[in-house]
Amino acid sequence: xxxVEESTATPSACQRSPRGGWAGVAALALGTFTVVxxxxxxxxxxxPMGASLGVSEGVAGLTLTIxxxxxxxxxxxxxxxxxxxxxxxxxxxxxxxxxIGNLGAAWAPDFGFMVAARVLVGIGMGxxxxxxxxxxVRLVPAKSAGxxxxxxxSGIAVASVLGVPAGTYxxxxxxxxxxxxxxxxxxxxxxxxxxxxxxRLPAERAIPLGGVMGLSGDVRVRTGLVVVGFVVTxxxxxxxxxxxxxxxxxxxxxxxxxxxxxxxxxxxxxxxxLAGAGAARSPxxxxxxxxxxxxxxxxxxxxLGGSVALAAVLMAVWGLSYGGVxxxxxxxxxxxxxxxxxxxxxxxxxxxxxxxxxxxxxxGLAADGIGTTAVMWVGGALAVGAWVTTAVGRSPAAAxxx
Length: 402
Prior knowledge:
The chain is mainly alpha-helical. It has 20 helices and no strands.
């Protein structure tokens, strides 16, 4: 019996607790929102961060790369390391690490200190995301396991599209350090909510690291992970540097950039729910549409984004398409490994965050070596790679239908 099977067998015990249920699921969703927002805050703050820390925008973008790399390693490693530890306790400890990391980022006097703080953010983020993914089914009745899991992952999707504009607005209204302080405060709220609303969630059996990594041997899982690698790397190669791109192409200031990112975010929330419904029926068809639209939008932005109105339209289309990426790819992975949800989720988190790190790195090299607009073409090319992989790879939907 896998840990996920054990977890789904225990919800009734949790329901008898005065804690848990949908309130606990909401706490997990707030947790995933907080960790992903913390990870991506530098995207909208690169210009003032770089100036304050005395580094270029490309170097400042490494704060996202470092966090993603640490999260990519910590997610699949922490799940086996936690062993039989109570998941509520583990979640609280990991959120505390995240809070310390955000406070360190807010107070960083130089780039080296910022790097150390972002390492802590990466550890907390990778661990919280991986652990939270498998807990929803233990908090609600079996018939509600699907919606509960979707709600937990909606925190990730909403953070992916709203966390950056929120941080950008706060940075423009006060300063970039205030955005990290706000993230730390939100982390404290999550810590209290998890401690109060979640029941004890003991793990009955440990998962060996080999069991997590072995899931990649399934061709359907492997195809889904390759799609994740392409589309997320491409997105973050471009999106990490969207502020300087918009400033160069459209000639807008920080306030307008924040507005454009808010347009992107609002469209992304809609895209999350639209894609979630489509992915439940066919993750392949949904991802084919998403990656095609994403490739086209990112590629034409440097040419058509000179008009603020057209830039707003393109940002909305970009948000609508990318807003569905996390829910669609997560659905693909879970359909491909229904008996190993926690292990599969930790592997998914590792690849997803490794792709974020790689995208920020590739984008930084392109921005510093060729120019900021070049990151858009790199992102578009990688999105095409995701489309091709989705089209020719083995999907879980095809296997079920067969």
